[in-house]
TrEMBL record:
Organism of derivation: Letharia lupina
Protein name: DUF7587 domain-containing protein
Source superkingdom: Eukaryota
InterPro entries in the record: DUF7587
Pfam families for this protein: DUF7587
Record domain DUF7587: where: 11-155
Amino acid sequence: MEKFRRRHAELPANLYRVQYPGCQTALSGNGLQAKETNVTYTEDDMNAFRESIIKQLTWGHRGDQPYITCFSEKDHAENWACKEPWNHGEYGNESWSLLTIDTKLMPEAYVFSLKDLVTQLDLALPEMASQHVKGGYLCLHRIPTTAIVYSASAREVKNDVEDRKWQETYHPLDDYSGSDLEAAENNWNDDIMKMVEGDWN
């Protein structure tokens, strides 16, 4: 496993962990802990190593695995969490959270880039997992509580996502000048009035 481990200097500054009901990773006062914390793999165990990674990324077919799955991109983590795929399309109760992990505070951790593993081990992942290859990371066994620097509730995450969508849809007036600025102000005010009057489609 050592040769697949990302060097500490190569890790992104932050990783993001979605902690949701029923997941195999436990969150306690000691930090995050995978379901299995004793297993490691040697050069002679590469087939077992490959199989464990595939199981980690296969819904409903994991068994006890030694990994904690994280994202390197906050937007990706938020979008995935807001879909609540663990609820299988049913309405969720928003009892999940998004944890921000400072990788500088976990220098001893074994962290693997999913993209590296797929390339170097020639892994064939389930289709649903392929979207996470680029920014996915697997942390072995544990993440200490000292490395978890922020926790956002589901409602906080959803509010942030909605705020960004609003800002992306309605461009700041600073982007305009002259007659374009006047037109943008008029459109902005018209939209606000529609919302106030309940005439918004």
